[in-house]
């Protein structure tokens, strides 16, 4: 049993204690996930049928990696029969088999956040309530909160406290909206993400025979990242484990970062209460990072009051200090990072996949993408707007969804008149109202147009158009019975005129839309091939759609390889990279301005910081900018408080100027980052210039600090058109007429202009976005 050899004593205990409840509560990089993986291998080696093991991971990617590792120990076929995946994917699979218990079709659609929002918007509109008060995103978050706490519509209306709270918040109608939203989803044969958990709970509580079946099946349950389970997930695990109590959870309270999604840190802290006989194992040695990184991370997290004290140490090399870079702007920050990656790639033979750029919010991505592209560095952005959420991709998917689930009215409304085929909103509304008042699904009306036509109040021309549309959908459905998903999707793309319509737009954006459709079709071929290789592979369209709906974290999986990873800190949990850039370390950005008002919120931000730093194996960089283009304008920013919380002995400054100030101020945690944000940045030329000159290790890209005299107006598409100069009169769509007083920057993509508008006063604009016209 070679796989046991590499474990330390505590890890060995956790891996080989196979029966009864077990918890591993330990710091980052201490081998929790490794223990979980090896424990599964050990269970199988000891004769447990993999069919009886359920392992729940935080991402699909983690599940895939764990499966591969287990396969190395026990062989591919045993690893294949494991039930391993995210909560959502595992429970979607169970719900499909048992959907009839809940009155759902087994081919139910899974709505992503955007689909859910669309349905909710319609509900809000139909109810004629004020969308300014009942902001759809806010309402959806509230509904999600209810669902994750198992507050169904009925439970809501039986809970005066909740209703009163909503009433006080001037949101009296939330309950009614919730009810209508749930009804709409049910009618559409659809579940949103939270439903996958809520309905599983419902299934297991209402139908004891179903619970018994899965209790017997899942004799061994293992959960990674247990600190981020929400109440709904907690109850599912508890119910499933209650018969055999062979449950192993691993986690780290210091890495609980999903409270905004209902994660409950007490699930892990109360494990001992739930299972008084539980064995608890703590792991103290961090195998991932250098001593410097581990010690720095420990210092920061120790500032949190609410945490389980843990000892974490590293016996790896001491390692380099964490390097801090202060940049002038967001573009400068991105250029520094890309130049640094380029250099380490060349001088230290680092692979591009060794690097990760971690940020607090998705909107920070763009500057880094631009900078990496300029240097031809391959990269991959995780999360954010995934490929499958792009409009054109969703449109084609909506056609396919209708083929599988006709009742999916959200998909139907997307495509019934797209590309335009003369079935306008009035017609659609008439159809909806008619179907509602006769209590039949719209599809039944469409199926029997001849019969219903006289009552619909639509003219013959429109009836013909509706008939043609529906006949086309029916023809696709027939085709689906004999042809594979790729051929059907290709036919849909052509016959629906979607491709033709997209091809009419020959702008770069239009062309890339066609390419995306092509890419979607390619991915179907890949899917068919993949399913062919799996023993019980299922190449059906519904399986394809389900994979997509649940794949938000592993989009474009084929797209791995030698690439720099860009992702939010949230997505980086559990991962590791030799070199990590933690960027945008500024007050109001990280900690986020939304999350620094209470101590609880701040502590969660600090845990995020801890997660980010502990992703690094060998080198960590912190960067921040003194001014940043945000919310449409350039704003000054202050360094993040987390920077000053890292003990000074673990860091080193790339800008020597800061180092000098630091020496003068020495003393632990003296706030060397306390710069006055309002310092006018163009007046620091001399100082900046010196800094650049003395900056030997990492020469940032050359910068002309003198204002440039002229600049080209750049279209958003990147092509430049008109010259613009200081003194020019210009027009701006929103601000009106003004005069250019200052131009700054050498990168044509990133030239900033100061313009004094006659009505609006002075504005700092980025030419690329400002769309100024010279007058
Ligand atoms: N006993 C060991 N000997 C050598 N390497 C180890 C040992 N235990 C763990 N590692 C390695 O240390 C790294 C961190 O392990 P792992 O990812 O399992 O930690 P973790 O506790 O799950 O971290 P996180 O809290 O970030 O999820 C991995 O590269 C793993 O292979
Ligand atoms: Mg882990």
TrEMBL record:
<feature type="binding site">
    <location>
        <begin position="26"/>
        <end position="33"/>
    </location>
    <ligand>
        <name>ATP</name>
    </ligand>
</feature>
<dbReference type="GO" id="GO:0003677">
    <property type="term" value="F:DNA binding"/>
</dbReference>
<dbReference type="Pfam" id="PF21196">
    <property type="entry name" value="PcrA_UvrD_tudor"/>
</dbReference>
<dbReference type="Pfam" id="PF13361">
    <property type="entry name" value="UvrD_C"/>
</dbReference>
<keyword id="KW-0413">Isomerase</keyword>
<feature type="domain" description="UvrD-like helicase C-terminal">
    <location>
        <begin position="291"/>
        <end position="574"/>
    </location>
</feature>
<dbReference type="InterPro" id="IPR027417">
    <property type="entry name" value="P-loop_NTPase"/>
</dbReference>
<dbReference type="GO" id="GO:0005524">
    <property type="term" value="F:ATP binding"/>
</dbReference>
<dbReference type="InterPro" id="IPR013986">
    <property type="entry name" value="DExx_box_DNA_helicase_dom_sf"/>
</dbReference>
<dbReference type="GO" id="GO:0043138">
    <property type="term" value="F:3'-5' DNA helicase activity"/>
</dbReference>
<dbReference type="InterPro" id="IPR000212">
    <property type="entry name" value="DNA_helicase_UvrD/REP"/>
</dbReference>
<dbReference type="GO" id="GO:0000725">
    <property type="term" value="P:recombinational repair"/>
</dbReference>
<keyword id="KW-0067">ATP-binding</keyword>
<keyword id="KW-0238">DNA-binding</keyword>
<keyword id="KW-0347">Helicase</keyword>
<protein>
    <recommendedName>
        <fullName>DNA 3'-5' helicase</fullName>
        <ecNumber>5.6.2.4</ecNumber>
    </recommendedName>
</protein>
<comment type="similarity">
    <text>Belongs to the helicase family. UvrD subfamily.</text>
</comment>
<dbReference type="GO" id="GO:0033202">
    <property type="term" value="C:DNA helicase complex"/>
</dbReference>
<feature type="domain" description="UvrD-like helicase ATP-binding">
    <location>
        <begin position="5"/>
        <end position="290"/>
    </location>
</feature>
<keyword id="KW-0547">Nucleotide-binding</keyword>
<dbReference type="InterPro" id="IPR014016">
    <property type="entry name" value="UvrD-like_ATP-bd"/>
</dbReference>
<dbReference type="GO" id="GO:0005829">
    <property type="term" value="C:cytosol"/>
</dbReference>
<dbReference type="Pfam" id="PF00580">
    <property type="entry name" value="UvrD-helicase"/>
</dbReference>
<dbReference type="InterPro" id="IPR014017">
    <property type="entry name" value="DNA_helicase_UvrD-like_C"/>
</dbReference>
<keyword id="KW-0378">Hydrolase</keyword>
<dbReference type="GO" id="GO:0016787">
    <property type="term" value="F:hydrolase activity"/>
</dbReference>
